Amino acid sequence: MDLTARVATALGRSVLPTVIARGGAIRVAGVEEGVATLEVTGSPGAVLPLVSRIEALILAAVPEITGVQITGPGAGSEQAAAGSLAERARRILETEINPAIAAHRGHAAVDGTAHGWVRIRLEGGCQGCSLAEVTLRQGIEPLLRARLHDMTGVADVTDHAAGMQPFFSAEKR
User: Fold this and answer.
1) What's the rounded mean pLDDT across residues 9-32?
2) What domains are defined for the chain?
């Protein structure tokens, strides 16, 4: 069985049912030079909170895999390592995070960096969303930490009170 099939089998046994139950889908787009690229679709809440669990599962189940990249539909599998911390964070947001949170009319942008801290501004359906903190701390931050080893942390600089159409309002809690 090739690496792609082994990664798909590992996902199917453990994580896939949870992702599907949460309104998402995940498929193995390919494996290149030991890095498994997973394409996620559907609800961002289906996969983003599980990113670290998915990576740990794959790394344990398929020892030949050295890394896991999660992308949205149609994103390229290449992740350039060159550039400033802000540029690299922007690329990750655009290719891996924003395609997923777009399902909730959301968008994440890099507002700047300083001393290893990446300032993130949540926009659209994420601005003022009652689950924005969960998206940031359990989805975006772990993914950025896994990809940006020189990052110290993530700071949310969003003016949530100004959110006009949050996907989940405080009343929906």
Assistant:
1) 85
2) 3-71 (3.30.300.130), 85-172 (3.30.300.130)
